Every structure is written in C-alpha cells, then in structure tokens.
C-alpha cells in the first residue's frame, strides 16, 4: 500500500500558517502531528494556523512551549502543543508524561519530534519543514495510518486550489 505524502511549497510565514489552518479545519477527530525541521523552518507558524483551524479563539496567542514543554488550547478539538527542543537526549512519551494527556480525542502537535524514540511515533502525520530560501518552505506531510492518509488526501484537494502543490 502506498504511503500518502503531500509536498507543499509555502512562500511566506502567512502561507505556512494557512497550511496549518487548512489541516486543522480538516481534522474531525484526534490526531498526532510530528513536526520536524530546523530552527525557523515554520513549525510554530504551522501550529498557529492549526490552532485557528481547530477554532481556538483568536484571543489565545499560540506560542512555542519551549520552557513549559506543553501548552493546551481549547477549540473544536483540544490542541496540545508540545515542544521537545530543550530535551538533550531522545525521549519516549512515557518518560515525559505525554501518555497521560487527558483527552483521547485531542490533537497533539509535537515540535522537534525527531527527539522522540522512533517507536513512539505511531499513527499520525509527520510534517517535515525544509528551508528553501528566506521565506520559502518546502513542507512534506507523510501519513502513517488510514485516518492520516484520508486527512492528507483532503488537504491535498485544498492545496491544489491554492497552488501550494
């Protein structure tokens, strides 16, 4: 079976945010999003858009939880924004208590997901950010699991309309 992959080019932080909003608006149930990429590659901008797509109220400013590890936002589906940047070594979800997140039907966006043990990256979508030029990003969404594949196909339809693909 072919793994659904969507490659998108965004030309500004606003477009990267809009891609996140599109993903969030297409989500109908909980999902893990594993965000990977260098500093400044667009991970937080993507999550800011994701929050808006999940209908997190606009008065909540979404920032990277670099010092707190997890920020929680209420929306159509709860959003947990997790940042593993400050962790030096590879970790697993159990060691840092992420299996204890209270909502089963929540969306979790994990920045610096490459710091997780590979076995802890289960079903969901891996989102890889690559810096092409100053404001241009190549973003690849890679599905793991049927629900993630369906989501990528839905986002792809919208991305084609917006000429991101």
Describe what this molecule looks like in 3D:
The chain has one domain (5-161): P-loop containing nucleotide triphosphate hydrolases (Rossmann fold). It contains three helices and seven strands. The chain has helices at residues 13-26, 43-53, 146-161; strands at residues 5-10, 31-37, 70-73, 79-83, 107-111, 124-131, 137-144. It has a seven-stranded mixed β-sheet with strand order 1-7-6-2-5-4-3. Helix 1 (13-26) packs across helix 3 (146-161). The radius of gyration is 15 Å and the shape is globular. The model has no long low-confidence stretch (mean pLDDT 86).
Features:
single chain, seven-stranded mixed beta sheet, 165 residues, 3 helices, 26% strand, Rossmann fold, alpha/beta
Number of domains: 1
Under the CATH scheme, which architecture would be assigned? 3-Layer(aba) Sandwich
Major β-sheet profile: 7 strands, mixed
Low-confidence stretches: none
**Termini separation:** 22 Å
By CATH reckoning, the class would read: Alpha Beta
Strand order of the largest sheet: 1-7-6-2-5-4-3
The overall strand count is 7
Radius of gyration: 15 Å
The number of helical elements comes to: 3
CATH superfamily membership: P-loop containing nucleotide triphosphate hydrolases
From the spread of the alpha carbons, the general shape counts as globular
Which helices and strands occur, and which strands form pairs?
Elements: E1 5-10, H1 13-26, E2 31-37, H2 43-53, E3 70-73, E4 79-83, E5 107-111, E6 124-131, E7 137-144, H3 146-161
């Amino acid at each position: 079976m072919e793994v659904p992959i969507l490659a998108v080019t965004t030309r500004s932080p606003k477009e990267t945010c809009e891609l996140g909003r599109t993903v969030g608006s297409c989500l109908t149930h909980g999902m893990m999003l594993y965000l990977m990429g260098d500093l400044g590659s667009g991970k937080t901008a993507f999550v800011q858009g994701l929050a808006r797509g999940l209908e997190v109220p606009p008065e909540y400013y979404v920032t990277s939880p670099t010092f707190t590890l997890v920020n929680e936002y209420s929306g159509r589906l709860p959003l947990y924004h997790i940042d593993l940047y400050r962790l030096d070594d590879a970790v697993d979800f159990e060691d840092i208590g992420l299996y204890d997140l209270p909502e089963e039907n929540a969306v979790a966006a994990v920045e610096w997901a490459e710091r997780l043990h590979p076995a802890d990256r289960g079903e969901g979508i891996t989102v890889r950010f690559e810096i092409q030029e100053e404001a241009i990003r190549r973003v690849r969404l890679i599905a793991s699991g049927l629900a993630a594949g369906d989501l990528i196909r839905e986002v792809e339809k919208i991305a084609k309309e917006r000429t991101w693909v």
